[in-house]
């Protein structure tokens, strides 16, 4: 845990110092006049924490079962508490002082109370939960049910966050991976990757399904590239970007028309994406034509790619700090998370995170210990070959 630089006030309040000053003054009674003054110091800025899932490494890859809190506040970087969750935690989303962790092989979502540091009772969902996104407007989480090595999933499971009970699943395309929700909280976009998990049968997917969340109904599927996995929405809600793992490209979708625009080539296999500071930041993994392990910036205004930013090996997930100044990426094969300066477009410091850092979400945390309401949602990192014995 990060130590305070000075004594902090209670959450949401300032630190009040009452200073009594005795002034000996000549008066007709010869007495002493007591004077006091009160000043209020502003609270310290909140700390910034990354919540990183640990998937396991080496022969234990796919058997991890923890999430770790990492203080990424500049000057205070440190690895903090671990929280026990289900097996193969491959996605995490934040909602105020709560984290919700999707556990791929446990077929559950684990709520974690960040204020108390306690994991709560897991919530059963569909087979192979691969991604999770939250609609604050509807107070619900939405989990993609990708399936297992032998079974191809095709649903999204809603969770009522007030009761922590699941609602009827919504049918989408085969092998749903990433999911992103528009800023108004009413529409989700689901990347249907198809049979990309080892052992699954069927074609690789090439569509994105829009979901009308208020009515829990699916719209007409939108054709994109092959193997869509990661997905993100621009802050204005106007464009969705989807990473096409097998096509080595990123497809923008016009939200107003739900039409796919021209695909944008990237060097390697894109698996995750976030949008910040006018760019889509793409996690680019190795392919037959590229060594990968880059972050590729794509201008939202022009759809032009910038120079790839090299990062450590095994890059998987990406999330952005409040204020959109810095991104942090998880590097599974290197057992670190690494910073990206979004202004200079350069990779920065690493923080060792043993245990196979996989998915990531970031939030400011007030002195009371919980995540601030404006928690940043992560870019989804969902890969093929997810079974513990076959994931590479």
List the helices and strands and how they pair.
Elements: E1 15-23, E2 33-41, E3 47-54, E4 66-71, E5 78-84, E6 89-95, E7 98-103, E8 108-113, E9 118-119, E10 123-124, E11 129-135, E12 140-147, E13 152-160, E14 165-166, E15 170-171, E16 176-181, E17 187-194, E18 204-212, E19 217-218, E20 222-223, E21 228-233, E22 239-244, E23 249-254, E24 259-260, E25 264-265, E26 269-276, E27 279-285, E28 294-299, E29 309-310, E30 315-320, E31 326-331, E32 336-341, E33 346-352, E34 357-365
Antiparallel strand pairs: 1-2, 3-4, 3-34, 4-5, 6-7, 7-8, 8-9, 8-10, 11-12, 12-13, 13-14, 13-15, 16-17, 17-18, 18-19, 18-20, 21-22, 22-23, 23-24, 23-25, 26-27, 27-28, 28-29, 30-31, 31-32, 32-33
Structural description of this entry:
- Strands 6, 7, 8, 9 and 10 form a five-stranded antiparallel β-sheet that branches.
- The protein contains no helices and 34 strands.
- It folds into two domains: 44 residues, no CATH class; 319 residues, 7 Propeller (Methylamine Dehydrogenase, Chain H).
- It has 392 residues and is mostly beta strands.
- Helix content is 0%, strand content 50%.
């Amino acid at each position: 845990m990060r130590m305070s630089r000075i004594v902090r006030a209670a959450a949401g309040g300032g630190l009040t110092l009452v200073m009594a000053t005795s002034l000996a003054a000549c008066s007709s009674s010869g007495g002493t006049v007591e004077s006091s003054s009160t000043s209020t110091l502003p609270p310290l800025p909140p700390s910034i924490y990354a919540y990183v899932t640990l998937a396991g490494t080496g022969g234990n890859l796919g058997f991890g079962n923890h999430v770790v809190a990492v203080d990424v506040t500049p000057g205070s970087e440190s690895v903090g508490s671990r929280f026990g969750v289900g097996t193969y935690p491959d996605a995490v989303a934040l909602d105020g002082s709560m984290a919700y962790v999707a556990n791929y092989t446990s077929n559950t979502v684990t709520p974690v109370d960040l204020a108390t540091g306690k994991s709560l009772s897991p919530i059963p969902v569909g087979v192979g939960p691969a991604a999770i996104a939250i609609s604050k407007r509807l107070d619900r989480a939405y989990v993609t049910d990708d399936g297992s090595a032998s079974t191809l999933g095709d649903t999204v499971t809603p969770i009522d966050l007030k009761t922590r009970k699941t609602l009827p699943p919504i049918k989408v395309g085969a092998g749903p991976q990433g999911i992103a929700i528009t800023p108004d909280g009413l529409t989700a976009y689901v990347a249907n990757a198809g049979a990309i998990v080892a052992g699954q049968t069927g074609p690789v997917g090439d569509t994105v399904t829009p979901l009308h969340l208020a009515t829990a109904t699916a719209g007409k599927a939108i054709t994109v590239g092959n193997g869509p996995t990661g997905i993100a929405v621009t802050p204005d809600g106007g464009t969705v970007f989807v990473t096409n793992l097998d096509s080595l490209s990123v497809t923008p979708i016009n939200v107003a028309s739900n039409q796919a625009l021209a695909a944008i080539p990237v060097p390697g296999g894109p698996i995750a994406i976030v949008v910040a500071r006018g760019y889509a930041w793409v996690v680019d993994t190795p392919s037959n034509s590229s060594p990968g392990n880059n972050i590729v910036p794509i201008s939202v205004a022009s759809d032009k790619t910038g120079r790839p930013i090299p990062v450590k090996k095994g890059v998987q997930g990406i999330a952005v700090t409040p204020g959109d100044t810095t991104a942090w990426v998880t590097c599974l094969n290197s057992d670190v998370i690494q910073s990206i300066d979004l202004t200079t477009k350069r990779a920065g410091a690493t923080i060792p995170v043993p245990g196979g850092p996989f998915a990531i979400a970031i939030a400011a945390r007030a002195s009371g210990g919980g995540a601030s309401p404006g928690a940043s949602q992560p870019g989804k990192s969902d890969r093929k070959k997810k079974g513990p014995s076959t994931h590479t």
